[in-house]
Amino acid sequence: MFKKDITPGAKSKVKSSAQRAIRGKIVEEYPLLGPYIDEIIPKKEQLDLVKLPDRVSLYTLGSNPLFFQHMDDALIPHLAVVHKYPNCFPRLRIDRGAIRFVLSGATLMAPGLTSAGGRLPNPDADEEDVERYGKEDLEPGTVVVVEAEGKENACLVGVLKMGTKEMKMVKKGAAMEGGHCLGDGLWMLNLG
Amino acid sequence: MTEVTTGAGGPESHAKHVVYCGVCSLPPEYCEFGGTVKKCEEWLKVQHPDMHERLYSEDVINANMSSLTIEAQKRADKDAQKKAAKAVAAEARALEIKASSKILIKRVERNKRKYVTAVQGLEAHGLDLKKVAKDFGKKFATGSSVTKLPGGGEEITVQGDLSDDIYDYLVETYEDIPEENIECIEDKKKKGGG
């Protein structure tokens, strides 16, 4: 979504009622973030809304980007937030070979997830993996965080285009389109 | 976000603190995909020696390599080289632009004895026009604003004839701008010589 460097547009303050709604939405969408929501968006702080190209709006706190949203789609966390609260989002993992493609902004493809180095929710995996990557299959449309084999931090976040069950069966095609990855325009964005 | 710097404490209780590379801004473990690996490595060695050891020791690199097939490795290598070359070229270009781009300070006659001063080209030196405009206004106690140029781009317009003052101020405050790149021009009605 942010392959090119982007320039932020107008910055405006978010109404406090809208801010409350955003908080509610975030908690609803990511229930695991519930206990930390006061850390991410303190009640008294003023959120800002920064308009980005292609009808994307980004919510920031001071100069920290928090969540972005395309039109009225799901609120997607910025990777900085994901890095701070890695356990609060549904996660997948890609193998090492796929990292360089993902980091250059390519569409995430299913083989990167289904191969030996990748992880999908799987009830038959060993205990550690089940705990990390869950066992319930994820539906298309879920916001997921993508980690990488051998790396600690996530490298991509976005909306699934294909359910994980289907991925396991087909093992082909695009798994996610237009995510936010490390080093893309949104990551490099400088909010004065 | 006030209390996120509580170290690498359990993510259960507090936000996890992630170190980002000062060169390419990615978490250091991803530096190898960024194209500026050498610089990143040096930076990490100075800033976080413990992490440097963990990420750049021989075993780790070998382990990374062995997890890929030889063919994939070759391709990845080629790609990495290309990327590095690209990064170097981009950096050189940016430097060149910076070195060659001039800052123009124009005195524009507005109304017989009244002048405004227009400053162009600051953005090429990595300055935020809005902030600089505010600084000018504060420093010289005049109106100062960012105006759009008809041909695209923006300039700072300061009220009053301040070309020499602005010249001095720029030289003094922004030391990384070479002095010979700043030029004062007197603009009559449309275009005139300096």
Written account of the structure:
The complex is a heterodimer of chains A (192) and B (194). Chain A starts with 10 loop residues before the first strand and ends with a helix. Helices cover 28% and strands 24% of the residues of chain A. The radius of gyration of chain A is 17 Å and the shape is globular. Chain A contains 8 helices and 11 strands. Chain A is α+β, with helices and mostly antiparallel strands. In chain A, strand 4 and strand 5 form a beta hairpin. Chain A has 2 domains: 74 residues, Sulfate adenylyltransferase, CATH 3.10.400; 93 residues, Sulfate adenylyltransferase, CATH 3.10.400. Chain B folds into 2 domains: 72 residues, no CATH class; 86 residues, 2-Layer Sandwich (Translation Initiation Factor Eif1), CATH 3.30.780.10. Chain B is elongated and about 75 Å long. Chain B is built from 6 helices and 5 strands; from the N terminus they run ααααββαββαβ. A 5-stranded mixed sheet of chain B has the order 3-4-2-1-5, with helices on one face. Chain B has 194 residues and is an alpha+beta fold. Chain B starts with 36 loop residues before the first helix and ends in a 7-residue tail after the last strand. Classes of the chains: A alpha+beta (192), B alpha+beta (194). At the A-B interface, helix 3 and helix 4 of A face helix 4 of B.
Strand portion of chain A: 15-25%
The coarse silhouette of chain B is: elongated
Which pair of chains forms the biggest interface, and how many residues does each contribute? A-B, 32 and 30 residues
Task: Walk across the major sheet of chain A and give the strand order.
Answer: 1-2-3-4-5
Tally the structural domains of chain B: 2
**Low-confidence runs of at least 5 consecutive residues of chain A:** none
The profile of the biggest β sheet of chain A is: 5 strands, antiparallel
Radius of gyration of chain B: 25 Å
Query: At CATH's second level, what is the architecture of the largest domain in chain A?
Result: Roll
The chain-level mean pLDDT of chain A equals: 87
Question: What is the number of helical segments of chain A per DSSP (H or I, 4+ residues)?
Answer: 8
